[in-house]
Structures are given as structure tokens and as C-alpha cells.
Design brief:
The chain is α+β, with helices and mostly antiparallel strands and about 100 residues long. The chain has three helices and four strands. It has a four-stranded antiparallel β-sheet with strand order 2-3-1-4, covered by helices on one side. β2 and β3 form a beta hairpin. α1 runs antiparallel to α2.
Length: about 100
Amino acid sequence: MKSTAMGFIETFGYGTALQAADAALKAANVQILRIEPVIGSGGSLGVTVFLGGDIAAIKAAVDAGTEAAGRIGKVVASNVIPNLDAKVRVGMYHNNI
């Protein structure tokens, strides 16, 4: 699968992020690039699921994951970045994406 797009779903809580990831992977032919936990303000755990794939698949996966996560927890943000520039990918998270 050629990964030309990146999508993300940012949630509060690991369980909510896992629900998002599960629904996203079942909805479309995408791959998880990374699951990034961050302890935020007040000690809350923010978790972002980064997905890679073609633009249409990423859009479907982010939509499905966002909807599923929102049913059990809080979704902070989600987005699709079509045709992610290679320099951004290289620079993000110490080359882990």
C-alpha cells in the first residue's frame, strides 16, 4: 500500500484511542503509523492515532474512527492531510512516522 496521505484522531484516554484505531482499520485499507500518548494539562492522557494510506481510505478510516471513539469517550480533533510532504514525514517524531 502506497501511503500518500496521513490522518489522525486525537482522543482523551487510551481506551478511546483503541476504539478509534480498531474502527479505522476495519473501515478501510490503512495502516497505523504510530499511537502517541501525551500527558496533558491536569494529568489527562491524550492519545493520538496516526494512520497512513491513500486519500480515500484515510478519509473513510478517520471518519469511522472518529465516530466510534466519540461513542465511548472524547475526541479532541481529527484530520486528513492529503499528499503529506516527505519532509514533514521525515521530521515528525524523530523519523517514526
